Amino acid sequence: MRLTSSGPDSPSPDAAGPLIELSGVKKVYRTGRLSFPALQGIDLAIAPGEMVSVVGPSGSGKSTILNIVTGIDRPTSGSVSVDGQRIDTLSEEKLAAWRGRRVGIVFQFFQLLPTLTALENAMLPMDFARVFGGKERQERAARNLGLVGLGDKLDHLPSELSGGQQQRVAIARALACDPVLLVCDEPTGNLDTESAEMVLSLLHDLNSGGMTIVYVTHDRGLAERASRCIAIRDGRIESDRHLR
């Protein structure tokens, strides 16, 4: 089954400007008198419709890049633009509103609310962003769960689902507000091999439908499954390869 996002077909990299653009981005974490440089001058552009993996060892800065791109964290210096919006200059309130409507985030450990059903979890971003009416929220959440192969699990609690199914609910939740960008932090890191393959296949289907996807992994083999692989080491880009 091929999935399609609600956005336009994937354009070629030359058809439009970058969807994501980082310029001279540095991030330094400070604890008391100590400072820890996480990113040391990152210049990066990602075009609409790309599927990009970010790979590197623990502590290399790869998750920090995702946090910067999604506005969860702010750069110490440099600029960050996503979909034409300079996000590093937004207030916290405007940044939260922007993130809720424009970016879908998938975490390694699912982060589903245990007392809510799959349908209710998939509706949450629409509730927080205050978009669509109540009936439409349910219809859209049910549609997204159907897209990820869980149309028969709408009333199931997370405890009644396998790890792979929970991650697919998390992906359906991330798609709730029709984001321009889907960002995944170790999306298969907590799954068995079969479930991981299913989730990766789902991400490929979404990308084929036009969704821009950036995912972080420590697994070099998984990183090679993207169309572009960026390797990070010691807070710097070590390599940037187009794979297909």
How does this structure look, described?
With 244 residues, the chain is an alpha/beta fold. The protein contains seven helices and ten strands. The protein has a six-stranded mixed sheet with strand order 6-7-8-3-9-10, with helices on both faces. Strands 2-1-4-5 form a four-stranded antiparallel sheet. A hairpin with a 2-residue loop joins strand 9 (228-233) and strand 10 (236-242). Helix 3 packs across helix 4 (134-147) and helix 3 packs parallel to helix 5. The protein is globular and about 50 Å long.
Question: Which structural traits does this protein have?
Answer:
alpha/beta; 6-stranded mixed beta sheet; 7 helices; 10 strands; 4-stranded antiparallel beta sheet; globular; single chain; 244 residues
List the helices and strands and how they pair.
Elements lengths: L19 E12 L2 E13 L4 E5 L6 H9 L6 E6 L2 E2 L5 H11 E4 L11 H12 L4 H14 L15 H12 L6 E5 L7 H16 L3 E6 L2 H4 L4 E6 L2 E7 L2
Parallel strand pairs: 3-8, 3-9, 6-7, 7-8
Antiparallel strand pairs: 1-2, 1-4, 4-5, 9-10
Helix pairs in contact: 3-4, 3-5, 4-5, 5-6
Nutshell version of this structure?
Helices cover 32% and strands 27% of the residues. By secondary structure, the chain is an alpha/beta fold. Strands 6-7-8-3-9-10 form a 6-stranded mixed beta sheet, sandwiched between helices. A 4-stranded antiparallel beta sheet has the order 2-1-4-5.
- Helical content (DSSP H or I, runs of 4+): 25-40%
Number of helices: 7
Q: Please give the largest β-sheet.
A: 6 strands, mixed
Termini Cα gap:
22 Å
Question: Which strand order does the major sheet show?
Answer: 6-7-8-3-9-10
Radius of gyration: 18 Å
| Structural class by SSE content | alpha/beta
* Element pattern in H and E: EEEHEEHEHHHEHEHEE
Count of extended strands? 10
State the shape: globular
Mean pLDDT: 90
Strand content: 25-35%
Uncertain segments: 4-15
